[in-house]
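Predict both folds.
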Amino acid sequence: MKKILLCCLFLMIPALCLADQYVNGYYRKDGTYVNGYYRSSPNNTSRDNYSYKDNYNPYTGETGSNYYRNDRTSEYYNGYGQDRR
């Protein structure tokens, strides 16, 4: 029984590591309220973000259109602008 429980726990760890994150709503400096939203877990690439070109956001049903031209991890990187690293 312990082996089965341990095996189940071991199989759940990758799912927890790759889980989406909920960002609570907040107020900007200008007083504008931003509603809470789900985002993909942070990592070292922009290609798996919901807003990245042609990616699908399961929470909003929208398809991403952002090219991330200023991010070196993007295939559309143009070599200009600030890099987020």
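Second protein follows, with its predicted structure tokens after the sequence.
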Amino acid sequence: MRFVTLANALGDRYRHTVLALDGDYACAQRVAADVCVRYETISAPKQATLGNVRRFRRRLRDLAPDVLTTHNWGAIYWAVANIPPLARHIHIEDGFGPEERSAQIRRRVLTRRWVLSRSTVVLPSRNLWRIATEIWRLDPGRVRYVPNGIDIDWFTRVEHMARDVVVVGTVAGLRAEKNIARLLHAFRLVCASVPTRLHIVGDGPERRALQELAQRLGLEAHVEFMGQVNDPVTAYRSFDIFALSSDTEQMPLSVLEAMASGLPIAATDVGDVPAMVADENRAFVTPLAPALLAGAITTLARDPALRARLGTANRAKARADFGLGAMIATYAALFDSAAPVRP
């Protein structure tokens, strides 16, 4: 989605070739018609690392790009294929999967330390900056901090609907690291004391198991699985409180979108979330225990004036710090070999 945003905003300034390593090109439909972008596939069998690197290097030599951009650990062997360099390399790291939720895998640390030592590394969170410079031991002069940005005005058009029951909502891919199960356990405690509903927006491999858990917890009448939605503004319009229950995040766009929508945030203390929300909202960012998350949600659910105050502060913080224009300008400068952007 970030690529789509940048490509659409920068128009004919660049030409792009996209190789989705999982073969999923669904986001192509969001690219504007006047953007010059070509989509390619390449075979990358598992357990064939050396063969894949040779294959990637041949393709890279054929493409002859001015800039190679790789995203996250899944694309790291394209960076390996660029040694010795065939193109200037920018690596963008957004975070980690469930296998690295609590600790870095040493093999990956050493690989990143070696492969990325002469690359430009772009990170959207201060926590990732710390990991890259202290654990991966990358040269801080090559590491750029570029926070995510969103179209604030698009989300500030949200007008929240009046209703008798407080709606707690989350927007997330239903994957293990998002730990929606934690939110369900927390919500069971919330709805026992406050009239509330839970809207879960998103889809993924965990959906069936989460629906079964909601039934076991006796929540089927209080929880609605909304599935994937094309326009997130509509989803945020149905919320009074936004909840994040992840095990691992860095700078989640859903939190930025909820802030821009004028919502209070109850969240687990992961990544940059405490620094993202307004100062007044920070008390509702809790350790990972479901009971503590439930306490934050319950306090917000009982106090509409508090929700309004925090929502206003979050919207102001989003506008001041996380606008789309700044992100687009910074990435364009990086693609054109600009100076480092420090946190």
